[in-house]
């Protein structure tokens, strides 16, 4: 089946080229080429630009609510200008809007930037390129995937402008808060829009995911054995499988919530008295919702993280001019993480009233997952050992990723221990943990990917010095924001508080909150350097050479033009793994995957 | 505040200026391939990596030194003391891992920064090393699991001390109420449909067991020292979470369910107010309050809401007073009995 499919595509391609000798243009209209494009390279750019816009929105929100936390009650023209008189009267943030901002910030960052944006951009760009395929298995579904993503982004953003404000029950939208319009204004129309938007998002993610899996399994070019694939492709494959298996559960979770909200069912509701009257609902349980939500929710954190780890594997190996250390162990640990990530969700629920015995099981599985995670971190560090490291901006961000993955990962060990979780659950300690391990790592991975593959995406180079400036501002400010949060958690500060000033016990934490906010503001401004570099380079950057980083993978064998079908003429044939950097006896310090093995030469790490 | 705005503006201007300069420079250098990483870059960035590590670690220790004694005071409950001990052991372990692995990461970045002359070594894997770093964490984690679960099982078993005190916490948007059983030692049944002004906790008025309950207690609850407290938790509307950080106790309050948590407070409020750690902490708090023009305060145990529950989630609090047995009994005697409370209405 696999070979049939590929050769069919191949035939079609060659026939095509008998008629049109120029690859560039099949007289596609503007709409075909830039809007409803079915080309993986264009779709990848569409995902990236959308994600950048969403990221800017979410980042601006975080600056607003951080200002409120550091200087509660202070009047800011900025807040009034951003939110208007309704939500930012006299420049003071409204408490309901505070919760709404936190909710939408989390939702956009987790789903739209780090899931849709990260996988959508790089799986689309790299899977066909790196396995040697003309395009995705289904260009049409791929196009749909982007447009569902686009529409869901528009709906989520539009919900910011409605009268009662957007959803505001936290990105985890636990009912009954999210189910009852009486409970919070955000649970009126805003919540409905959130649910609709997320459902469309899941559709997008499934269309994308199925495509990624099929393309990797069926459209690999000749010689591209699974064990020769770059780790990026392995990461996208496992991510896609996780998504396909877990996102549908989120849909069930969301549909039941929609029923409770509009059809009067009682999946999650029971014994509630609100708005001056008892509700009829009996027999439901919010704990059921939590199970369903986290059954997606935990795999989701790996859906966010694995692509970033895949990108980093590639960048660290290329920039260290060394093979990735323990290629097979890296695949093994990704598979282990992928499997285990389905049986750890309960570690988010130790304090929810779930049976404590069940909690014990999740303690065990969660600590198991720490082992493959540790193996990955060690392998990255050893890849750099005895390397000849070239500090491209992408490499800097990859090192940043390894650092934040460790720094945030170790506190996971504490949180996974249900006994220790009792007192830090839902405090800022958790906020610190998941921002560092998931937020920072994945964002760093995304930046690494953008800097590294920009030449393939836009055929131009980004400015290196601006990349350096961007990296150092981002790394230092990111730690400045999230490290002190551990100490807020140790002092017992709960998450999602509009202000800490109502409890005398938190009065001596003012300086921590100020440091966090100041770092957040500087860090946010620092992203201006990136935005400038990004958009400027798209139009005015230096023209990129074919293989600027001296990489081994197939995408760098394509011509520096966006041609339909990626390779003019026939597809490349693969003869070796992707990591022959600095191989003894070779003239250069890299050997592209298409170079045949010499007599008696060993392939890969098999010896 | 104005100063900060000014600072931000100045920084913006500097950043903008730098940006333009860099671009102009790079434009001038266009033919030399600005994007290419040179040996000079590698030297600079490699050193920067090492310097960053030093700054990062210094920042870490600075924070520990400055903020560690603003953490919660030592646990005021029996199981909490065990949690603290376990916490310390784990924190030391992960701090070592954090420092050592980050050290190797940044040190390698510095040490193996690229040059034009050197070549990387072709090393693909090393089975022994990989076995070692799989097995060692596995063993360490096994210990963490064993101790963690041992305590977890002790903490989470149902309350069974014969002389235990039952306290019901009832959460609603946005306050707490409490209920204690009366002489019969039993809490009456509840029925959320019967909630009204006089029956704010939704007690079943047809259940005689509830008539003598001490209900609708607001703002402050008292518990005796050194006796097992069995908390039973309910919610009227959305999920809340009863968080008693000083006792290392937390449990969600879920509509439709009764959740539980048990603990033994082992320091009275009066004792805690004199604890040296607490005194120092309160001094810090009161210095800060003075700056805001707020009155000084004394230490109190607190019950907070720790699950997002709506607009005033940030302000759901109740004081908890740990009394000697005698003081507790005296307080209890003053609480209103449910039936008379209803009658009075
Ligand atoms: C070393 C392995 C890790 C362990 C043992 C671990 C464990 C945990 C635990 C137990 C919690 C729940 C804490 C609580 O709610 O009180 C948690 C929260 C979280 N973790 Fe991890 N984690 C690990 C790595 C990761 C990674 C790699 C990611 C991201 C890719 C991640 C993302 C998150 C997120 C998003 C939350 C917050 C959930 C919430 O909203 O409450 N964790 N982690
Ligand atoms: Cu999780
Ligand atoms: Cu609450």
Can you offer a commentary on this structure?
The complex is a heterodimer of chains A (607) and B (345). Chain A folds into two domains: 32-284, Up-down Bundle (Cytochrome C Oxidase, Chain A); 325-543, Cytochrome c oxidase-like, subunit I domain (Cytochrome C Oxidase, Chain A). Chain A is 63% helix and 1% strand. The longest helix of chain A is centred in the first third of the chain and has 37 residues, at 95-131. Chain A has 16 helices and two strands. Chain A has a two-stranded antiparallel ribbon. Chain A has 607 residues and is mostly helical. Chain A is globular. In chain A, a hairpin with a 2-residue loop joins strand 1 (273-274) and strand 2. With 345 residues, chain B is of the alpha+beta class. Chain B has a domain at 165-344: Immunoglobulin-like (Sandwich), CATH 2.60.40. Chain B is 46% helix and 17% strand. Chain B is built from eight helices and ten strands. Chain B has helices spanning 2-28, 39-67, 78-111, 127-156, 269-274, 276-291, 325-333, 338-344; strands at 165-172, 175-180, 214-218, 220-224, 228-235, 240-244, 249-253, 259-264, 301-305, 317-323. In chain B, a hairpin with a 2-residue loop joins strand 1 and strand 2. The longest helix of chain B has 34 residues, at 78-111. The chains are: A mainly alpha (607), B alpha+beta (345). The interface between A and B is large, with 139 and 125 residues. Residues 298, 301, 344, 347-348 of chain A line the site of one copper (II) ion. One copper (II) ion binds next to helix 9 of chain A.
Short description:
The complex is a heterodimer of chains A (607) and B (345). Chain A is an all-alpha fold and 607 residues long.
């Amino acid at each position: 089946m696999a070979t049939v499919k590929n050769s069919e595509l191949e035939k079609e391609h060659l026939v095509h080229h008998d008629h049109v000798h120029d690859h560039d243009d099949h007289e596609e209209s503007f709409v075909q080429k830039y809007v409803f494009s079915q080309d993986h390279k264009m779709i990848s750019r569409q995902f990236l630009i959308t994600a950048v816009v969403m990221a800017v929105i979410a980042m601006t929100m975080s600056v607003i609510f951080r200002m409120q936390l550091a200087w509660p009650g202070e009047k800011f023209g900025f807040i009034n200008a951003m939110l208007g008189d309704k939500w930012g009267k006299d420049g003071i943030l409204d408490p309901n809007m505070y919760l709404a901002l936190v909710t939408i910030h989390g939702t956009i960052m987790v789903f739209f930037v780090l899931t849709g944006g990260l996988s959508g951009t790089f799986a689309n760009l790299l899977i066909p390129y790196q396995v040697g395929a003309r395009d995705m298995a289904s260009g049409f579904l791929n196009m749909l995937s982007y447009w569902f993503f686009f529409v869901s982004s528009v709906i989520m953003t539009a919900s910011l402008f409605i009268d009662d404000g957007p959803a505001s029950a936290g990105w985890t939208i636990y009912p009954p808060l999210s189910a009852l319009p009486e409970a919070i204004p955000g649970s009126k129309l805003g919540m409905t829009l959130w649910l609709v938007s997320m459902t469309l998002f899941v559709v997008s993610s499934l269309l994308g995911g199925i495509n990624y899996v099929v393309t990797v399994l069926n459209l690999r070019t000749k010689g591209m054995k699974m064990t020769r694939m770059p780790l990026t492709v392995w990461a996208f494959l496992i991510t896609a499988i996780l998504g396909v298996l877990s996102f549908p559960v989120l849909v069930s979770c969301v549909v039941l919530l929609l029923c409770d909200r509009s059809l009067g069912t009682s999946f999650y509701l029971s014994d509630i008295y609100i708005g001056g009257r008892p509700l009829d609902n009996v027999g439901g349980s919010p704990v059921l919702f939590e199970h369903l939500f986290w059954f997606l929710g935990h795999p989701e954190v790996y859906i966010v993280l694995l692509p970033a780890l895949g990108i980093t594997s590639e960048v660290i190996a290329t920039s260290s001019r060394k093979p990735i250390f323990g290629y097979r162990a890296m695949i093994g640990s990704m598979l282990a993480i992928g499997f285990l990530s389905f049986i750890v969700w309960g570690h988010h629920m130790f304090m929810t009233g779930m049976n404590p015995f069940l909690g014990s099981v999740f303690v065990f599985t969660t600590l198991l997952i720490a082992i493959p995670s540790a193996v990955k971190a060690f392998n990255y560090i050893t890849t750099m050992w005895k390397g000849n490291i070239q500090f491209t901006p992408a490499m800097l961000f990859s090192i940043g990723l390894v650092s934040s993955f460790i720094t945030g990962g170790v506190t996971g060990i504490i949180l996974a221990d249900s006994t220790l979780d009792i007192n830090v659950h839902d405090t800022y300690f958790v906020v610190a943990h998941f921002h560092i391990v998931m937020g920072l790592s994945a964002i760093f991975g995304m930046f690494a990917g953008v800097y590294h593959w920009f030449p393939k995406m836009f055929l131009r180079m980004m400015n290196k010095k601006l990349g350096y400036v961007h990296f150092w501002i981002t790394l230092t400010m990111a730690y400045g924001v999230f490290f002190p949060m551990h100490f807020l958690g140790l002092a017992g500060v709960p998450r999602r508080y509009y202000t800490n000033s109502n409890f005398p016990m938190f009065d001596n934490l003012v300086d921590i909150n100020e440091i966090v906010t100041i770092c957040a503001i500087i860090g946010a401004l620092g992203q201006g350097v990136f935005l400038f570099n990004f958009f400027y380079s798209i139009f005015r950057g230096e023209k990129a050479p074919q293989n600027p980083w001296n990489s081994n993978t197939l995408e760098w064998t394509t011509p520096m033009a966006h041609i339909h079908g990626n390779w003019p003429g026939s597809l490349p044939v693969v003869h070796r793994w992707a990591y022959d950097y600095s191989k003894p006896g070779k003239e250069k310090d890299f050997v592209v995957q298409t170079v045949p093995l010499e007599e008696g030469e060993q392939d890969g790490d098999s010896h | 505040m104005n100063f900060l705005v000014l600072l931000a503006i100045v920084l913006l201007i500097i950043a903008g200026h730098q940006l333009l300069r860099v671009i102009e420079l790079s434009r001038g250098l266009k033919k030399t391939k600005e994007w290419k990483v040179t040996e000079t870059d590698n030297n600079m960035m490699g050193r920067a990596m090492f310097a960053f590590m030093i700054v990062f670690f210094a920042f870490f220790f600075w924070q520990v030194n400055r903020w560690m004694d603003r953490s919660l005071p030592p646990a005021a409950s029996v199981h909490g003391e065990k949690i603290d001990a376990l916490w310390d052991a784990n924190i030391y372990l992960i701090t070592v891992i954090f420092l050592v692995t980050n050290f190797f990461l940044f040190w390698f970045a510095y040490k193996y920064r690229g040059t034009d002359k050197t070549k990387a070594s072709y090393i693909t894997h090393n089975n022994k090393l990989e076995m070692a770093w799989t097995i060692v964490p596995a063993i360490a984690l096994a210990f963490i699991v064993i101790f963690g679960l041992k305590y977890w099982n002790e903490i989470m078993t149902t309350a069974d001390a014969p002389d235990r005190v039952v306290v019901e916490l009832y959460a609603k948007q946005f306050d707490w109420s409490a209920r204690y059983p009366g002489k019969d030692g039993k809490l009456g049944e509840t029925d959320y449909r019967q909630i009204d002004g006089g029956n704010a906790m939704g007690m079943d008025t047809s259940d005689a067991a509830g008539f003598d309950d001490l209900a609708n207690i607001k703002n402050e609850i008292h518990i005796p020292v050194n006796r097992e407290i069995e908390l039973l938790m309910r919610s009227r509307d959305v999920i809340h979470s009863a968080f008693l950080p000083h006792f290392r106790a937390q449990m969600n309050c879920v509509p439709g369910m009764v959740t539980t948590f048990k603990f033994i407070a082992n320091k009275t409020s009066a004792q805690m107010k004199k604890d040296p750690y607490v005194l120092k902490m309160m001094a810090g708090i009161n210095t800060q309050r003075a700056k805001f023009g707020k009155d000084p305060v004394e230490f109190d145990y607190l019950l907070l809401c720790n699950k997002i529950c709506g607009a005033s989630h940030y302000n759901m609090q109740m004081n908890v007073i740990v009394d000697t047995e005698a003081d507790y009994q005296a307080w209890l005697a003053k609480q209103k009995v449910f039936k008379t409370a209803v009658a009075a209405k």
